[in-house]
Amino acid sequence: MTVKNNAVAGAVKTSHKEPLFHLVKRTDIATWKKWLIRVVAVVIALLIAGIVCAALTGGKNFVKFYSELFSGSLGTVWRLQVMLQAWAILMCISLAVTPAFKMRFWNIGAEGQTLISALAAVVCIIYFGGKIPEPALIMTMLAFSVVAGAIWAVIPAIFKAFWGTNETLFTLMMNYVATQLVLYAVNIWAKDGSGTLGVLSHGSFDKLFGMEYIQNVVFVTLLTVIVFVYLKFFKHGYELEVVGESVNTAKYIGINVKKVIIRTMVFSGVMCGLAGFLLVGGSPSPTVNANLVGGRGFTAILVSWLSKFSPIAMIFVTLLVVFLERGATQAANTMRLGDSGAFVDIVVGLFFLLIIACEFFLNYKIKFRKKEGK
């Protein structure tokens, strides 16, 4: 009987055997470990990108990929200026979406808000260029761009605040409307029937400090400080964070949730308007087309999330993204990898994939089953 009972107990013990490993939520992790994990993720992404490049070139150019990566972004003063211009635009749009995301308003429409703002700036050039002084034209472009971005952002905000519509779908659809409006306007303005608007002769404030694009960098740097102070020290920044944490709590302590939603989206739209203004007026070749924003509105969402909605962290994440974009473009062109845009998407996609994946190790740890004693 004793032997039988022992056998039964052993069977029960075996059936309830612990799994080989299980996930445990991290309660705390040192800051240096967090950064180490992220740095390792970036290094792995670059290694995989180099392997992909070598595979596409018949096993060659693994080392050359990294030299072209740095040359394409930092090889000359001109390339550095172009990279800084790309940083300024992406950073501006990333700052624009951050307040809305902190409020848990899923604004997927930064692409359209920036594009419609650029269209408003070009409208000013088309109809006022050469008719009023250039400084007055620049200020008019700025005003039109800001107002257009604010209007494009506040429309879905009003519907969300008063009727509870889905802001994700609403803002996404607004992107397509903005694109079609740009295509329609360009077809009207392009008298040769090409559907392409050439470089406009007015409206550029490029080389304001003697170097191309530097004014954009200075402007966006100041804007970063403003947004940081606004979110961290102003009452409005506190209110939108409370709304993001709990709408019921916000209502309980007397916050007007509808007002906060509308005000925050106006703020985001204004910053998208500034980005559209810089895309047109801050360029040596002001123009507009359906691809002018170039997907930055969607990239900005990833930048904002990876930066944990911190404008300071956003500076470095954005710099890394544009560094990879410019460098990968140079590598694709030099090594004749075909469509450079496709290769750039691979490199940047690997970066985002590995960085997002590493968040798993920041939040969880793998605990293996302890070995049973003899």
Per the principal axes of the C-alpha atoms, what is the gross shape?
globular
How many β-strands, per DSSP? 2
> Which percent band covers the strand fraction?
under 5%
Distance between the termini: 24 Å
Q: Give the CATH superfamily of the largest domain.
A: ABC transporter involved in vitamin B12 uptake, BtuC
Report the order of strands and helices: HEHHHHHHHHHHHHHE
Unreliable residue stretches? none
CATH topology of the largest domain: ABC transporter involved in vitamin B12 uptake, BtuC
- The computed structural class is mainly alpha
Mean pLDDT: 87
**Architecture of the largest domain in CATH?**
Orthogonal Bundle
- The gyration radius over C-alpha positions equals 26 Å
Description:
The model has no long low-confidence stretch (mean pLDDT 87). Helix 2 packs across helix 3 (62-74), helix 4 (77-102) packs across helix 12 (296-306) and helix 4 (77-102) packs across helix 13 (311-334). It is built from 14 helices and two strands, in the order H-E-H-H-H-H-H-H-H-H-H-H-H-H-H-E. The longest helix is centred in the middle third of the chain and has 30 residues, at 134-163. The chain has two domains: 29-56 and 337-369, no CATH class; 81-335, ABC transporter involved in vitamin B12 uptake, BtuC (Orthogonal Bundle). The chain has helices at 2-15, 31-56, 62-74, 77-102, 110-128, 134-163, 167-189, 214-233, 235-245, 247-252, 257-281, 296-306, 311-334, 340-363; strands spanning 21-25, 364-368. It is an all-alpha fold and 374 residues long. The radius of gyration is 26 Å and the shape is globular. It has a two-stranded antiparallel sheet with strand order 1-2.
